[in-house]
Design goal:
Blueprint (H helix, E strand, L loop, with lengths): L9 H44 L6 H23 L7 H5 L2 H36 L10 H5 L1 H22 L4 E3 L2 E2 L5
Antiparallel strand pairs: 1-2
Helix pairs in contact: 1-2, 2-6, 4-6
Length: 186
């Protein structure tokens, strides 16, 4: 039996949207896990290699840089999804319900707008790097492939913040993220 959230014409759209969201969540976790593992292996492995041989892996810095860029910008989306992003919440915590409700809608909206604007400039930067033909020094890897995760992560983060805004519009409770209610209200 279909639940009330997926009945009618919107049912198939909601199912597809939820499936895409679940796939994106899985992909985000996979990318973040591997980026952290690669950073650790490159750093630790290079230290051990340098201790044993007196030389460094020529590619360790570039691979680590790529992994840090990926982890940072995909991490924006993941943190917004989980409500784990940095926030200065002293005013929010002390505010009455109506002010909190307004801020729980306005703040994610403003954050999403800022992320989309920065993503626009990141796309321009990435395209400029692509057109320049720049490559990394050690691996001769196209540098635009290293920075392409910046606009992608910013757009995904903006989408997550819009979702956080929407969840606060349609619910009476205050949510910090889609599945995370305000800790002061629990």
């Amino acid at each position: 039996m279909a639940d009330s959230n997926t009945s009618g014409a919107a049912g198939p759209v909601m199912r597809v949207t939820k499936a895409l969201d679940a796939g994106l969540h899985t992909l985000e976790k996979l990318i973040l896990k591997w980026a952290i593992i690669i950073i650790s292996v490159m750093t630790f492995g290079n230290v051990i290699y340098r201790t044993l041989t007196g030389a460094s892996w020529h590619f360790a810095e570039e691979v680590s840089e790529l992994s840090i860029i990926v982890a940072t910008f995909f991490g924006i989306s993941y943190a917004a999804r989980k409500g784990r992003h940095i926030s200065m919440s002293a005013f929010f915590d002390l505010a009455p319900y109506k002010v909190k409700k307004f801020l729980s809608i306005f703040n994610p909206f403003l954050t999403a707008v800022i992320l989309f604007v920065v993503a626009y400039f990141a796309v321009q930067y990435t395209y400029g790097v692509y057109e320049s033909g720049r490559t990394t020094a050690a691996l001769q890897f196209p540098y635009w492939l290293m920075v392409v995760s910046i606009p992608i992560g910013l757009v995904l983060g903006g989408i997550q913040f819009l979702r956080n805004m929407w969840i606060n519009i349609v619910n009476k409770e205050i949510y910090l993220a889609q599945e995370k209610k305000d800790y002061n209200e629990q």
